[in-house]
Amino acid sequence: MAAPVRTLCCSVLRQSSRQFSTTCGVQAGEKWRKEHGLSRSGTEYGPLTDLPDWSFADGRLAPPMKGQLRRKQEREVLARRIVMLNSEVDRGMEAWSEKQEEAKRMEEHKKSLLLKPKGKLLMKKQSKS
Fold first, then answer.
1. 52, 62 in Cβ contact below 8 A?
2. In the 3-class helix/strand/coil scheme, how is the chain assigned residue by residue?
3. Distance between CA atoms of 52 and 68, rounded to whole angstroms?
4. 76-87 residues labelled b (16+ CB within 10 A) or e (exposed)
């Protein structure tokens, strides 16, 4: 029963003078904006998005809109996450360098425990240095 409906629908679309597209719509200029380091669309950030739409005649700013408050909060959350991840990387680098220094100290300690040259070998070593 579903097949006749589909056939009818397709035949109606073929007879229609309007074009029907099934591809996903890509915003115009998105690729160019990405290549030039800009936002995907012109409405993600920038003066048209971030600044108030109006102000009072005496120069006072308009109260922030819900979208502006939401974007501000999202940016603050992102900034806090960046700072936290950056501090984690710093702690990891410090731990890694301490581990490298400890391995170097252990290697030097092992070398100091090796038998020392004596007698003629010690004299040859001192004369070479």
1. yes
2. CHHHHHHHHHHHHHHCCCCCCCCCCCCCCHHHHHHCCCCCCCCCCCHHHHCCCCECCCCCECCCCHHHHHHHHHHHHHHHHHHHHHHHHHHHHHHHHHHHHHHHHHHHHHHHHCCCCCCHHHHHHHHHC
3. 8
4. eeeeeeeeeeee
Count other C-beta atoms under 10 Å from residue 15's C-beta: 7
Query: How many residues are given for the chain?
Result: 129
56-88 per-position pLDDT tens digit? 999 898 898 898 899 999 999 999 999 999 999
Split at pLDDT 50, 70, 90, the class of 53 is confident
Place of tokens 């700072």: 83
The two tokens of residue 45 are: 């950030």
CA angle 19, 23, 25 (to 5 degrees): 95
Q: How confident is the model at residue 89 (pLDDT cuts 50, 70, 90)?
A: very high
